[in-house]
Amino acid sequence: MATLKALVVDDASFVRDLVKRTVRQRFPVIETAEAPNGRRAQSLMSRTAFDLILCDWEMPEMSGLELLQWMRQQPQYQSTPFIMITSRGDKDHVIEAIKEGVSEYLGKPFSPEGLSRKIIKVMGRRLKDAMERKGRSLEGPADAFKESATLLTQKRPPPEDPGRAAPARVATASGRPPVALASIRFAESVLKSVIKDINLTEVSLVAKRDQDFPGILEPAVVDIDLGEGQVARLNGYVHQLQAVDKRQDTDFVGVIVRFVDEDPQKLEDLSRFVARFRAGPR
After folding, report:
1. How many domains does the chain have?
2. Residue 22 CB contacts under 8 Å (≥ 6 apart), including other chains
3. Per the CB 3.0–4.6 Å rule, which of 39, 110, 136, 141 could disulfide with 62?
4. Among 117, 152, 187, where does a domain finish?
5. How many CA atoms lie within 13 A of 147 on its CB side?
6. How many whole angstroms separate alpha carbon 49 and alpha carbon 270?
7. In terms of Cα–Cα distance, which of 263, 255, 264 is closest to 186?
């Protein structure tokens, strides 16, 4: 029976499922509940005492930062660990979260190993003791889930700074179709590619084969330049990998990333970009 309780807060059900699965497989002493936004999380936290909050930043109705601000004003949650899991990894947002009392900050996309390390760090002795009472060790060998995840997401050396990957930028030439260059961020790599097609549910990309490619179902963040200094960070996962040419030594690989965000603002931003992409050069 679980002895600790964690609340997973994210507007994307795919991300919530990934976090819950990681927690369940790595820390069986932690029971998880979920909420699609800060407002729903606030309601759950008022009725149930949670030992850990794993929360996204950008959500409809109430953001992760607003939930953190409210939480730190509640006597029962003033010292409860709060891990912000978000694609907003720039310095200003990290500083803002720290000022409001965040315990740890984890950038999207993340690996199960990265999330596990953050949980161990913020839960400390309390988690260690609970695991030992169940005959489990935090330092033990990789479990079945971790091993299977490694098969899907091959180990790669991290890039210099994945959090600052260049956003997708539209560059057009007179009389030619629009060319949208995209840098798709993964937990341990960045894939330089060209957007072949995009709609409200997925983006189709083409990338050179000489790069480190993600695995099927690996979480991803697509940064799209909206113009005027605005960038939309769209969360998704790798749905398909396919050779562009019908030969084994093809130089290019096609990648399809399915979007998982349910935030109305992100969908509105994506709609504007899709319309601009399909309009082509003027």
Report:
1. 2
2. 112, 115, 116, 145
3. 39
4. 152
5. 5
6. 37
7. 255
**Domain-ending residue, one of 152, 170, 194:** 152
Give me the CATH number covering residue 229.
2.40.10.220
User: How far, in Å, CA of 212 to CA of 51, rounded?
Assistant: 38
Structure confidence by residue, pLDDT tens digits, 206-235: 999 999 888 888 899 988 777 777 778 888
Structural domain including 98 reads 4-152
Least confident of 47-61, 66-80, 131-145, 186-200: 131-145
pTM, entire model:
0.67
> What does the block give as tokens for 21?
């699965």
The 10s digit of each residue's pLDDT in 77-100 is: 999 999 999 887 667 778 888 888
Pair (239, 186) in one structural domain = yes
DSSP β-ladder status, 190-198 and 230-243: unpaired
